[in-house]
From TrEMBL:
It is an enzyme of class 6 (ligase). Allows the formation of correctly charged Asn-tRNA(Asn) or Gln-tRNA(Gln) through the transamidation of misacylated Asp-tRNA(Asn) or Glu-tRNA(Gln) in organisms which lack either or both of asparaginyl-tRNA or glutaminyl-tRNA synthetases. The reaction takes place in the presence of glutamine and ATP through an activated phospho-Asp-tRNA(Asn) or phospho-Glu-tRNA(Gln). Belongs to the GatC family. GO terms for molecular function: asparaginyl-tRNA synthase (glutamine-hydrolyzing) activity; ATP binding; glutaminyl-tRNA synthase (glutamine-hydrolyzing) activity; transferase activity. It comes from Roseivivax lentus. The lineage of its organism: Bacteria, Pseudomonadati, Pseudomonadota, Alphaproteobacteria, Rhodobacterales. It comes from the Bacteria. GO terms for biological process: glutaminyl-tRNAGln biosynthesis via transamidation; regulation of translational fidelity; translation. Heterotrimer of A, B and C subunits. Keywords: ATP-binding, Ligase, Nucleotide-binding, Protein biosynthesis, Transferase. It catalyses: L-glutamyl-tRNA(Gln) + L-glutamine + ATP + H2O = L-glutaminyl-tRNA(Gln) + L-glutamate + ADP + phosphate + H(+); L-aspartyl-tRNA(Asn) + L-glutamine + ATP + H2O = L-asparaginyl-tRNA(Asn) + L-glutamate + ADP + phosphate + 2 H(+). SUPFAM superfamilies: Glu-tRNAGln amidotransferase C subunit. This is Aspartyl/glutamyl-tRNA(Asn/Gln) amidotransferase subunit C. Its EC number is 6.3.5.-.
Amino acid sequence: MSIDEKTAAHVAKLARIRVDDARLPELAQEFNTILGFIEQLSEVDVEGVEPMVSVEPMRLKRRADLVTDGNQQAKVLSNAPDAREGFFAVPKVVE
């Protein structure tokens, strides 16, 4: 599969990336290089190889699952336009 300049422009448009017309040949070549790498990967025989998450088997670090208030109430409320009794104060909108 080969990517031409028209396809590269279409991909750039879908990605919402502005690309100058002068750079389209370079972008198309980069896409073709990436596709070449993908084709190389498809040639690798992975029959019988179990999927793995990491190169080394290790247990993920875990923290204690504790509910806390974050100890940052004053810091959070410092930028509030109106705070009362440790909460954000907002105007009443329901009669």
